[in-house]
Design brief:
heterodimer, A: 542 residues, alpha/beta, ABC transporter transmembrane region fold, Rossmann fold, 2 domains, five-stranded parallel sheet, B: 575 residues, four-stranded antiparallel sheet, 20 helices, 61% helix, elongated
Chain lengths: 542, 575
């Protein structure tokens, strides 16, 4: 069992009271339902037989069975309600811990920027989390109910008519062991294939909607739509085929339970003729078996749900970032003589590309002050920032930062993530800042009046499905985050892209003053941002 | 296609795409209920003959086989129903995607910014994909939830008048209670709907935006907050669930209690405690067994439907999204009659305004261009440069004024003959998730040499050849090996390949570095020297000398109201 699997069961055992209560109530409900049918069946058969003679009818104790019938119908109803509430409560409690823990587990690793954003891996991850979340409700709880019902049924048979056991046991095993196993085989692989096809479908649809102009002008819209429809239909078919097969297995499970019902009823008649079974018990026996079968038909998908959840935990455990978890190679030294960064003979090559971006490159960025990195695309401007930020690690050479520690280096990446959260939370990112500080930071990037005009000011929610800042506004929010974090070393990767030229010039002139005692290293393709007295490193001239 | 008044009407209409399947499914449902009644009859006959009648008759082998067959037919009919439902769901989901796509195509780029591409993409994929349950399982069950109990009532009426009355009396109470409880639950969920949707996919959002939190060094704190927020989610969800589970409980209650009532009533009748409810002859054991077997089956279809109820609420929310799309579609002019468009020689605009009719986004402007001309569109962000370019491309109708083609006022809106003459480069290069070859050819046939020549003209041939697979390298959403500048050059190679008469460019160099931008402009000069005409929106001051003329966009006199809501930046941010 892997670490995460153990962790899941640990979380489950923390919630064992609620989880066990849910299982207890589910078992109670199942038993009440079956007993209601069985006792009703016995009661009316026995009453009918007693009714044949007036004396027997008079002596018949109808209070007990009447009370039992009413009692079971009440306990079935209340049990069902209690079971659903407690089992959901337990599930959600586990989910709360699970989500936080899985987030920490994933977040501690260094992911390359694209990896978690890619639809395929992101959707897989979320699907896996769903599988994990439903282990208790879809696997453990129904498994416990099935087991209890099987045992209860066998016990009743032993008491009423032990001769039935050799018939019943193999048929029950077929329904609750063999069929779930067969069912699982139809689920796990099919789920993988379907995920791949749905990903292709997503790509096709996303491609269509983000290339509307090109497709229209080249009269390819209809063609792309047809492709999307075809891919989607294929995925639908694949899904339906899998569901059909699963339903086929359920039909087989039904057949084995039907065999059980018919055999038990038939053997009941045989025993009745032989005088081994009272007439009133015949109907009871049939209804008991029918009630049991109704519960056990739900056992088939249980194992599959368990397997999917366990596999998901295993996959999460094995999930590794694309960028090998390289050991931190940057070296931090005391910043006695002011902040500075020294690159000594560094080399870097992307694993997937033949040529190195840097080989034997040395440079010194001395603070305080601004250093701009310029150069044509592909010369390594962003790579250099990523190396300085520790997002990439050099193949050889040394990067020395005279800095109090890694926390004193702040990076603004090219793509600014906007969380689905309030503007305040998006700026603070779990650090404490006063509203005045926030507004001051927004003022520096000319977003103060923008923020004031938002429907709920700083409490306005941003992100997917909420207020979406434009590309330029996102960049400025990224700058505001760094202003608030206030690190000693500030690394900016294409900070002005998507902003109006004049606006960018105003903002960077203001920041030049605000960050004058920091070491700022930024790359840009817009030389208009560079002020007199700031350093420029031209990568073309290497 | 009718105009739908609400989501339910749309779903109902969608259901018609599988009318045959639905009918068959209903028939199979009736087969099941017929088997259920036969089963009750058989069991009652067996028991009555064996233990109750004075002359004992025992079931023979044929009887046992009949019993097994009835059971099996019932199970097989249920299986057939699920298969047919699945087939229906494919048809209907396909029809819904077609419905959505047709609206998207009709609206074309005017789909944005009301909707963002990710939203619509999600509708076309995940949202519609997930409707199998509704169309395969829930929809066929809707008719059966009425027909099956009715059949049971009729069957039981043959032996008793009181028992069907008990059924009839409790049956309407079920939906009544369910509706009452359902309203309560809906109120509760509406009260914190926003909170529920926000908290529901918080984890997905935080994983998507993980980098910001990693950079801020606050991953552990975010884990703590996720826990708190999940706990809030649990509390609000449970307060809704506690109510909505009640409606299931109501069903459960009636289903259990009706078995109990029937059993106690029959038992006491047999014991001669009272004597009403039966027809003249009273009850034999046959009648008792028959009625008791039917009692739990009466509520079975409703219970099954109750279990599928969340499928319905999912389907309604998808239908609401489709409805929004449909309503937006109906407000726009979408059709255009095709007419012949002459090959472009001169292009002019006279007092042209673009935007929605009656709501132009910029003041009237005029210009005139000949082969080889290069026109610069000037104006700050939001001044309507993109809208104007889209209008000139024929993607939007003209708001006011006219476009003159070779001196003739011409309606270019949605003219295939005009589209063929246009090239368009947007700020973020439009590239399909497909091979580079498919991205270049876009359905037409070109030789590899022609493709490589076009790539060479755009100065990207070398890079493409070094990619794994070369021309067959597939561009994907992971970004892979292409930078923004490289993607822009592939889009430019497309222009050199198709040789449009007019090239429209929407700030194509905004994200390029100076040298790359300069090289890009040099390639554009090459295009105009070959006789191409171009119009480019830009605010790079260094590029002005490149153009032969310039127009500035001023705000329209009655500027449209700033669109409320959060759509302002979506087009840019959502792509």
């Amino acid at each position: 069992m892997t670490g995460l699997q153990q962790h899941y069961f640990h979380l489950l055992s923390q919630q064992r009271k609620m989880a066990l209560l849910g299982i207890f109530l589910a078992v109670l409900t199942a038993f009440s339902g079956i007993a209601l049918l069985a006792v009703s069946g016995w009661f009316i058969s026995a009453a009918a037989l007693a009714g044949l003679s007036s004396l027997a009818a008079l002596e018949f104790n109808f209070f007990t069975p009447g009370a039992m019938v009413r009692g079971f119908s009440i306990s079935r109803t209340l049990g069902r309600y209690g079971e659903r509430v407690t089992s959901h409560e337990a599930t959600f409690r586990i989910i709360s811990h699970l989500r936080a823990d899985l987030f920490r587990f994933i977040a501690r690793r260094q992911w390359s920027e694209t990896q978690l954003n890619r639809h395929e891996s992101a959707s897989r991850l979320l699907q896996d989390i769903q599988y994990i979340e439903s282990i208790y409700l879809s696997a453990l709880l129904p498994a416990a109910v099935s087991l209890a019902v099987v045992l209860g049924y066998l016990l009743t048979l032993t008491l009423v008519l032990p001769a039935l056991l050799p018939w019943a046991v193999p048929l029950l095993l077929l329904a609750v062991v063999v069929m779930p196993w067969l069912y699982t085989r139809q689920v796990v692989k099919a789920q993988d294939n379907l995920h791949q096809q749905r990903t292709a479908q997503w790509q096709s649809s996303s491609s269509l909607l983000s290339n509307m102009r090109t497709l229209t002008l080249h009269d390819r819209l209809q063609h792309s739509g047809d492709t999307l429809t075809a891919v989607a239909q294929q995925a639908d078919r694949q899904e339906v085929r899998a569901v059909d097969r699963q339903q086929g297995i359920i039909l087989l499970a039904q057949a084995s339970l039907i065999a059980l019902m018919v055999v038990v009823f038939w053997q009941g008649f045989v025993a009745y003729q032989a005088g081994a079974l009272a007439g009133a018990n015949l109907f009871m026996l049939l209804l008991l078996t029918m009630g049991t079968a109704e519960v056990l038909i739900n056992a088939s998908p249980v194992l599959a749900a368990y397997r999917l959840g366990m596999q998901a935990l295993q996959r999460l455990d094995a999930m590794q970032p694309e960028t090998e978890e390289a050991v931190e190679q940057r070296q931090f030294t005391a910043a006695d003589g002011g902040v500075q960064v020294q690159l000594n003979d560094i080399s870097y090559r992307y694993p997937s590309q033949p040529a190195a971006v840097f080989s034997g490159f040395s440079h010194r960025f001395a603070g305080p002050g601004w250093h701009w990195i310029c150069g044509a695309s592909g010369r390594g401007k962003s790579t250099l920032i990523a190396l300085l930020a520790g997002q990439l690690q050099v193949n050889s050479g040394r990067i020395e930062l005279a800095l109090a520690g890694p926390g004193q280096a702040g990076l603004m990446p090219q793509r600014i993530d906007i969380l689905r959260a309030s503007l305040r939370d998006n700026l603070c990112l779990n650090h404490a800042h006063s509203d005045d500080e926030l507004m001051a930071a927004l003022r520096l990037v000319e977003l103060e009046s923008w923020a004031q005009k938002l429907p709920q000011g700083l409490d306005t929610w941003l992100g997917d499905g909420e207020w979406q800042p434009s590309g330029g506004e996102s960049k400025r929010l990224g700058l505001a985050r760094l202003i608030l974090q206030n690190p000693q070393l500030i690394l900016l990767d294409e900070p002005a892209a998507g902003m109006d030229v004049l606006l960018a010039q105003r903002i960077f002139a203001r920041l030049a003053e605000h960050w004058q005692d920091k070491l700022v290293i930024a790359n840009t393709h817009d030389r208009g941002l560079i002020l007199a007295g700031q350093q420029v490193l031209k990568l073309d001239q290497l | 296609m009718p105009e739908f008044s609400n989501a339910a009407a749309l779903l109902k209409h969608a259901g018609r795409y599988a009318r045959g399947e639905n009918l068959l499914s209903t028939l199979l449902g009736l087969v099941q209920v017929a088997m259920t009644i036969s089963l009750a009859w058989l069991v009652a006959t067996f028991l009555d003959g064996a233990v109750y009648q004075q002359v004992q008759t025992l079931p023979d082998t044929a009887d046992w086989l009949t019993l097994a067959a009835v059971f099996l037919i019932r199970a097989a009919a249920a299986y057939g129903q699920s298969r047919i439902g699945n087939r229906a769901s494919i048809k209907i989901r396909n029809a819904l995607r077609g419905f959505a796509l047709q609206r998207c195509f009709g609206l074309n780029i005017r789909l944005f910014p009301q909707f963002n591409p990710a939203e619509v993409s999600n509708l076309l994929t995940t949202e519609i994909d997930k409707q199998r349950g509704y169309f395969a399982d829930f929809m066929p069950q809707k008719n059966l939830a009425v027909l099956m109990p009715l059949a049971i009532i009729i069957a039981s009426a043959f032996v008793s008048w009181l028992v069907p009355l008990i059924f009839l009396f409790t049956a309407p109470l079920v939906p009544l209670f369910m509706v009452l409880v359902g309203f309560k639950a809906a109120d509760a969920s509406r009260a914190n709907l926003q909170q529920l949707t926000r908290l529901g996919d918080l984890l997905a959002d935080r994983l998507k935006n993980l980098q910001a939190l990693q950079l801020a060094g606050s991953v552990e704190q975010e884990g703590d907050r996720l826990f708190e927020q999940s706990e809030n989610y649990r509390r609000s969800t449970m307060s809704v669930l506690r109510l909505s589970f009640l409606s299931g409980t109501v069903l459960e209650f009636f289903s259990a209690i009706s078995v109990a009532i029937v059993a106690v009533y029959l038992g006491l009748f047999f014991l001669e405690k009272y004597d009403f409810g039966s027809y003249a002859a009273g009850y034999a054991m046959f009648d008792g067994v028959f009625l008791l077997m039917l009692a739990p089956e009466f509520y079975q279809p409703l219970r099954k439907m109750g279990a599928l109820y969340h499928d319905r609420s999912d389907a309604v929310s998808v239908a609401e999204h489709l409805l929004q799309l449909d309503q937006c579609y109906r407000r726009q002019q979408t059709a255009a009659e095709q007419h012949d468009i002459a090959p472009l020689q001169t292009l002019a605009a006279s007092a042209l305004q673009s935007g929605e009719a009656g709501q132009p986004v910029h003041a009237a402007l005029s210009f005139s261009l000949q082969a080889g001309d290069r026109l610069l569109l000037n104006g700050p962000s939001g001044s309507g440069k993109t809208t104007l370019l889209d209008t000139l491309a024929g993607l939007r109708p003209v708001a006011q004024g006219g476009v003159l083609l070779n001196g003739q006022v011409t309606d270019v809106f949605r003219q295939q003959g005009w589209f063929r003459q246009i090239g368009y480069l947007s700020q973020k290069p439009e590239l399909l998730f497909a091979s580079i070859r498919d991205n270049l050819t876009l359905g037409q046939t070109f030789s590899d040499d022609e493709l490589l020549a076009a790539l060479a003209e755009a100065q990207i041939a070398e890079l493409v050849q070094s990619l794994p697979g070369g021309l067959d390298y597939v561009i994907s959403d992971s970004g892979g090996y292409l930078s923004g500048g490289q993607a822009q050059r592939i889009a430019l190679a497309r222009v050199f390949l198709h040789k449009p008469a007019l090239l429209l460019l929407d700030e194509p160099t905004a994200n390029l570095d100076q040298d790359t931008a300069a090289a890009f402009m040099e390639r554009l000069a090459h295009y105009t020297r070959q006789g191409g005409m171009l119009i480019m929106a830009s605010h790079r001051p260094g590029e002005q000398s490149f153009f032969s003329s310039e127009v500035s966009l001023a705000a329209a006199e009655h500027p449209p109201e700033h669109s409320a809501g959060h759509s302002a930046g979506q087009q840019e941010a959502g792509v």
